[in-house]
Amino acid sequence: MRSFFCLLALPLLLTGCASKSETPTGGQAALESDRPKVALIMKSLANEFFSTMADGANSHHQEHAEQYDLIVNGIKDERDLSRQVGLVDDMVAAGVDAIVIAPADSKALVPSLRKAKEKGIVVVNIDNRLDRDVLQEENVSIPFVGPDNQAGAKKVGDFLATRLKEGDKVAILEGIRTSFNGQQRLAGFNQAMEQAGVDVVSSQSAEWEMSKANTIAASMLSEHPDIKAILAANDSMALGAIAAVKAAGRSDDILIVGFDNISAVQAAIREGKVLATADQYGDQLAVFGIETALQLIEDPSATADDVETPVDLVTAESLAESGTQE
Predict the structure, then answer these.
(1) Ranges for the Periplasmic binding protein domain (predicted)?
(2) Residue 169 burial (10 A CB sphere; 0-12, 13-18, 19+)
(3) Quick one: average pLDDT of 32-58?
(4) What is the DSSP letter of 95?
């Protein structure tokens, strides 16, 4: 696997434009130009992580607009798999040169992406890794550009474990269970808790959603009043857990951790409402994928290797040291 740092030495080939709506930007003007046409297809743009991803692509476009065109799409609900499949089909019909996709499901998108590749379209997978077994069944190879989610979650879990003692009880808010990144974050959390001798007494999927996490976390607190911490597989669910903990009057004795480093959770870390999260550099993740896609457009014979991007622990101390602004 190539390191992320190899990307830093590559020539800047990127451009982009982005939007926070489901309506694609770049549109007809992009499709009518002679520049390479790249479609960025994301999950829910209601989630700050993905709107930040779109903003990062847009910022890069402003610096390199003469080099390629970018059409940005997103779905309103991360569970709307049929809509994301439809977006892939739409971009194939539009004749784009590449699709960079953060799939809402690790399995369901593979057949449509195989069809895109059969049309000669470059496909790059970001954020949530496509299922290896399904890729093999479909006889298709698609490079993954993104972080090691299990390692990132273990960093967060290990940090939480320093505030717990052996035998303490915790609960986990999982992402969508058919998403590889959700599975890997769960594995990282469980590994850290097992190594620390901490007991996971409840682990349920809130499907990445804040409101659902609020409801489930409230139920967890009611059923297991002795839990000491909640590990949320993304920051939206961590925000839901904050609300549940506050409603239960337990803000002072329940630790919460998340994953994604959105601005609202940075503020919560500073305020002591969240202990830690993981930063997978959402503002650059689409850019990493686009750069890979443009290399493959320029040289179709190039090997489409996976690219591991960074993921770092974020705490009150690291935020203070970096001077990150809210």
Answers:
(1) 38-298
(2) middle
(3) 89
(4) T
Specify the 3-state DSSP secondary structure of 69: strand
> In 3-state terms, what secondary structure has residue 257?
strand
Number of H helices, E strands in the chain: 13, 13
pTM given for the model:
0.86
Residues 139 and 13 in one domain: yes
Q: Are residues 193 and 130 in the same domain?
A: no
> Are residues 109 and 222 located together in one domain of the fold?
no
Query: What DSSP string describes 164-224?
Result: S-TT-EEEEEE--TTSHHHHHHHHHHHHHHHHHT-EEEEEEE-TT-HHHHHHHHHHHHHH-
Same domain, 115 and 185: no
Residue 190 has pLDDT above 60, yes or no: yes
Q: Is residue 172 part of a domain?
A: yes
Residue 117, domain extent: 2-146+281-309
Instruction: Give Cβ neighbours of residue 295 (< 8 Å, ≥ 6 apart).
Output: 10, 13, 302
**Where is average pLDDT lowest: 22-26, 67-71, 89-93, 187-191?**
22-26
Asked if 243 and 180 sit in the same domain, the reply is yes
Does some domain include residue 325?
A: no
Same domain, 24 and 115: yes
Q: Is residue 226 included in any domain, yes or no?
A: yes
23 burial level (CB within 10 Å; 0-12, 13-18, 19+): exposed
How far, in Å, are 39, 124, 174, 229, 302 from residue 117 at the CA level?
14, 10, 32, 44, 15
Q: How far from chain centre, in Å, is Cα 229? A: 23
CATH number of the domain residue 23 falls in:
3.40.50.2300
